[in-house]
Design a protein that fits this description.
This protein is α/β, with parallel strands linked by helices. It folds into 7 domains: 20-48 and 940-982, no CATH class; 59-228 and 236-272, no CATH class; 274-406, no CATH class; 431-505, no CATH class; 509-678 and 920-937, Leucine-rich Repeat Variant; 684-884, no CATH class; 984-1045, no CATH class. It is built from 44 helices and 12 strands. α8 crosses α9 (274-285). It starts with a helix and ends in an 18-residue tail after the last strand. Residues 697-711, 719-731 have a biased composition (Low complexity).
């Protein structure tokens, strides 16, 4: 077969389908596209919105002051005939004046009790100044720091004066006596709320602030006039009237409406009986548009109770609450909304009803006033929704009055949920908050619409932390907390999702969950293996937040067998579930010794070893993080605890130090730092031995080996030991595991020739790291021990860990290298302070003349660890051979003192060392992992969003690639019939290229040479980039090109 025919066959088989291949492009797996590659490993920078009230308050006392003087009109107001007469829906002229006054007072108290039944009510009917003073002082004394309400009805007395005075009576009711608001402030104290139902009430509001400032000035003057410090008289608290709330029936110079169709106390009626007033006003305004048989008399016959949402009256009250909350939420500043509508139940009810009073009274040319001042709300569009709900209710009222079973519930909430859904479906990215959010809050109270409301609420909080903050600020928290008591399984997916979103933004909610036993809900959910893995992942995340730095949460989770529950599912096929089960364990036993020992009993650390080789890097990093907190959680050190930590650290270093993902290696450094901190003296001994060995090496004129070890020839310790000793001076990767026990016995026998343990030198932890310099003189004799002791035939666990950390100092990833240096330099700096000056100077001068040691991280943990009992003699510790690269940057003294000195001279923690240790290094891996739950997960990523910029870029690239393939096919066909004699690119390089890779679609290629990597554009002939190694000995060449996963 000829060459031309064979080429034709290849051409036809390669492109016989004739398709562009764009469909297969979309199915190609993407590399280096995970979040660990595309974003920094950092936690959420956006802080949670302060949605919690700084202090919850309640109105505990109410003073009802009525100045009616029934039968006598005030002299400064001329009433129309007929005029408004009803007071608390009672006609005072229908009975004797005294009885009418008492009846009105009792009715007013009942109307207030609907909103705050637990308050203490006191009536003062047509009082004198002394009676008002006595009443106010008594209520303030009993209320202490809680709020007191002062309700004033001045329909039977003159209008308030321009000097800030209201009117009461003398004892014989023959004169009107002025009562200054200044005095009233003094008697009422703060916090208080004032309701003024009288003409010209706005004048009181304006002068109230002036009197408050006058109180403050007088207080400052009284303090300056007091005797010097040391006076036995206590300093009175400063007056604080800034938080006082005022509600006034009308503005300055306005009089109350006298329309006979209205009650005389229309303002009080709106505040205390809003539904009745709203319905009567609606009937009056729309009498011609309503069905027949709907009259004012039928309004009073509406069946049901205000607090029963299943009845017509209760449903109307429910709708009214939702609408007024929505108006306030969309109109008021957030802080003011919280103060007026979420802090105090009675205040919230009064201000909801105040919005209605503004709407109704403005239709009669009367403008209610409040302090703090509210923006106008009487024309808000939500009032139209209220009118529609009232219209639908009144349309069926005649039939309901005949037969209550004919009552049909209002479609208001269903329609509002639909509007909320439309906002979620069609809203743009730059959208204002949905006005229906407070209504969704109210819908959660209904079992009929609860499931749909939770679903929509879950979609809303999934939009991001801003949405979670909005939901929390509107008051969603107590509702979803209460729903955890529900046993309905259909609510589980939505509740666990919403709670995961809440805790991802504000972890402080953990305390509320523990206090209300909400953790049990998630414990039962995670134990139910029939639940989907993604829902159990959410439950694991919620539980990890509950136990995060929260001892009560850790205690209840441990009682709920969380350790065993997580370990049972730690090998689940869902990688995100594996990751968060491990993180949950890590947070559970972090600084909680009981949970750690529970994990020991369940062999938790051994079960986590398997995850160190998990195919998912995030799972491996979580396992390393969990084992690191496992080692840091021991309160009282023991030989058993030390042996466990030694094995964990050894396993980590053996398994993870070569992990291709820097995310995992960074967690390794963080985990190993706890061993360094806990056994600081042991590592100080190794570091001092390193300095001494390097000084001896420099004085003998020899260089360190490539593995970082050197030393004098080692004499045999006994018959037949020469071969074993020769291996001890060789690189660590040549140590054999089967020889370790023989070496232990030889070292034990050699140790008998050493000085007595009571006289040899020990590194002792003192109150300050810098104090180790005082031990310099005692260090010198230690360097002159016999060569037999210097030639130990095994490498201790601390030396091996030190070698591993020293190898990480040379890690190719800059962050891993920097973190490892921070840990090793912490020990090296203290060791340098401990070594005598002449030894340190020798070491430093030698290090300047020595070439840097190449990194060799393979096989430095192949030998078995000797028993912990052999490490008690610090003289043996001092003479272990552990030499690493002398290149490091010393830490400052301030950095070295960040670790508490709680280690005793034998390397174990003191008994009172339960306080948390300060880390030398840390990462934000767990915080970064938490961002998965605070960011949108329902909407999908940009890669699948057909309207995202990332999607458009990929689509363009795939279309471009298809065109390149078509052009390549055409060029390939023409290549068989035409000559290829056109030169595309030519250039000279400094070194001979060792490798060349062409990009399949871009006009780029990469050339590897001795000096580095070059990226070229073969169309323009320009070099686009040049890369060369930034560390290591001069003149390196690339032997392999790879990148971490």
């Amino acid at each position: 077969m000829s060459n031309n025919s064979s080429r034709a066959i290849v051409s036809s088989t390669t492109y016989e389908d004739g398709q562009d291949g764009t469909e297969s492009d979309w199915q190609l797996p993407l590399t280096f596209a995970d979040k660990r590659h595309t974003e920094p490993i950092e936690g959420e920078t956006e802080s949670s919105y302060p949605w919690r009230m700084k202090e919850k308050m309640k109105t505990v006392s109410v003073a009802l002051v009525l100045c009616l003087n029934v039968g006598v009109d005030p002299p400064d107001i001329v009433k129309t005939q007929p005029c408004a007469r009803l007071e608390c829906w009672i006609d005072p002229l229908s009975m004797s004046p005294q009885k009418a006054l008492e009846t009105i007072g009792n009715n007013l108290q009942k109307q207030y009790e609907r909103w705050q039944p637990r308050a203490r009510y006191k009536q003062s009917l047509d009082p004198t100044v002394d009676e008002v003073k006595k009443l106010c002082q008594s209520l303030r004394r009993n209320a202490k720091d809680e709020r007191v309400l002062f309700h004033y009805n001045g329909h039977g007395v003159p209008k308030p004066t321009a000097n800030g005075e209201i009117w009461v009576f003398n004892r014989t009711y023959t004169q009107y006596i002025p009562l200054s608001i200044y005095d009233l402030q003094t008697w009422m104290g703060a916090p208080s709320i004032y309701v003024y139902d009288c003409s010209n009430a706005g004048a009181i509001v304006d002068l109230f602030k002036q009197f408050a400032e006058q109180h403050e000035k007088e207080y400052e003057q009284s303090l300056s006039a007091r005797p010097n410090a040391g006076s036995p008289l206590p300093t009175p608290p400063p007056p604080s009237f800034a938080n006082c709330i005022q509600l006034a029936a009308c503005s300055l110079d306005q009089i109350l409406p006298m329309n006979p169709d209205l009650p005389a106390d229309i303002f009080t009626s709106c505040l205390t009986t809003p539904i009745k007033v709203a319905l009567r006003w609606f009937v009056k305004q729309n009498s011609a548009k309503l069905v027949s048989k709907v009259s004012l008399e039928s309004i009073d016959k509406i069946p049901g109770q205000l607090n029963d949402r299943r009845t017509m009256l209760g449903e109307l009250n429910w709708i009214f609450t939702a609408i007024t909350d929505t108006i306030a939420w969309n109109t008021l500043p957030r802080e003011l909304f919280h103060k007026l509508f979420r802090q105090d139940l009675l205040v919230a009810s009064l201000f909801r009803n105040f919005l209605l009073a503004e709407r109704i009274m403005r239709s009669y040319d009367c403008s209610p006033v409040s302090s703090p001042k509210l923006p106008p709300t009487y024309q808000h569009p939500m009032w139209q929704a209220w009118d529609l709900a009232v219209d639908l209710a009144l349309a069926q009222l005649p039939a309901v009055l005949e037969d209550e079973s004919k009552f049909h519930h209002s479609p208001f909430f269903e329609e509002q949920l639909t509007a909320f859904q439309v906002w979620l479906d069609l809203g743009s990215e730059q959208r204002t908050p949905p006005e229906q959010l407070p209504i969704v809050l109210q819908v959660l109270l209904s079992q009929v619409h609860r499931l749909r409301a939770l679903e929509l609420l879950g979609r809303f909080v999934d939009l991001g932390p801003w949405a979670v903050n909005l939901a929390l600020s509107v008051g969603i928290f107590p509702y979803v907390l209460k729903l955890l008591q529900s046993i309905a399984k259909e609510l589980r997916p939505f509740l666990v999702f919403i709670w995961a979103k809440i805790l991802a933004v504000d972890v402080s909610c953990q305390a509320d969950l523990v206090r209300e036993n909400g953790h049990k809900y998630f414990l039962s959910l995670i134990q139910d293996t029939s639940m989907p893995s993604d829902q159990r992942t959410l439950a694991a995340f919620v539980l990890s937040c509950i136990v995060h730095n929260h001892l009560p949460g850790q205690e209840v989770a441990l009682q709920g067998s969380l350790v065993s529950v997580c370990l049972e599912q730690v090998n689940d096929k869902h990688h995100l579930l594996r990751q968060w089960l491990v993180i949950c364990l890590a947070r559970l036993w972090n600084n909680y010794d009981k949970a750690r020992w529970c994990g020991v009993r369940d062999s938790a650390h051994e079960k986590l070893y398997a995850l160190l080789k998990d195919p998912i890097p995030e799972v491996r990093a979580a396992a390393v993080y969990a084992l690191g907190t496992f080692m840091n959680s021991v309160v009282e050190r023991s030989e058993h605890a030390n042996n466990i930590d030694h094995s964990v650290a050894t396993m980590l270093l053996n398994t993870v130090s070569h992990d291709m993902c820097p995310l995992v290696r960074k967690e390794l450094v963080v985990a190993l730092q706890w061993i360094v901190i806990v056994f600081e003296n042991k590592f100080l001994s190794v570091a001092v031995s390193e300095l001494q060995r390097e000084s001896q090496s420099s004085s003998s004129g020899r260089f360190m080996s490539s593995s970082g070890f050197t030393g004098p020839p080692l004499p045999p310790l006994g018959p037949g030991a020469s071969s074993e000793l020769s291996s001890a001076s060789s690189p660590v990767n040549t140590l054999r595991r089967h020889a370790s026990r023989d070496r232990i016995r030889e070292v034990a026998s050699a140790g008998r020739d050493l000085p007595d343990s009571t006289t040899d030198w020990k590194l002792k932890r003192v109150s300050s790291s810098s104090s180790l310099t005082s031990l310099n003189s005692s260090l010198v004799p230690t360097f002159t021990v016999s060569s037999a002791a210097a030639g130990n035939t095994f490498v201790s666990i601390y030396q091996k860990l030190w070698q591993g950390l020293s190898a990480l100092d040379q890690d190719p990833h800059p962050e891993v290298c920097s973190m490892s240096h921070q840990v090793t330099d912490y020990i090296r700096d203290q060791a340098k302070e401990s070594v005598p000056k002449e030894v340190s100077d020798t070491k430093i001068s030698a290090s300047l003349s020595l070439p840097p040691s190449p990194s060799n991280r393979s096989g430095y943990l192949t030998a078995e660890s000797p028993p912990a009992s052999l490490f008690g003699n610090s003289t043996l510790e001092l003479n272990r051979i552990a030499i690493s690269s002398p290149r490091y940057t010393p830490l400052t003294f301030k950095t070295r003192n960040t670790v508490p000195n709680t280690i005793t001279e034998d390397g174990t923690l003191a008994e009172d060392s339960g306080s948390q240790r300060c880390p030398l290094v840390s990462t934000e891996f767990v915080s970064w992992s938490t961002k998965h739950f605070s960011q949108p997960v329902m909407t999908g990523c940009d890669a699948v969003d057909a309207e995202s910029g990332f999607y458009y870029q990929r689509e363009f690239r795939y279309l471009r690639n298809a065109q390149v393939r078509r052009d390549a096919r055409e060029e390939q066909r023409r290549a068989y019939v035409s000559r290829l004699d056109h030169q595309v690119f030519s250039s000279r390089t400094s070194y001979v290229p060792t490798a060349l890779i062409l990009h399949p679609y871009e006009p780029h290629f990469v050339v590897a040479a001795k000096d580095g990597l070059s990226v070229w554009d073969h169309i323009t002939g320009s070099r686009l980039a040049y890369l060369r190694p930034d560390r290591g000995p001069p003149g390196p060449h690339f032997a392999r090109y790879s990148a971490p996963p």
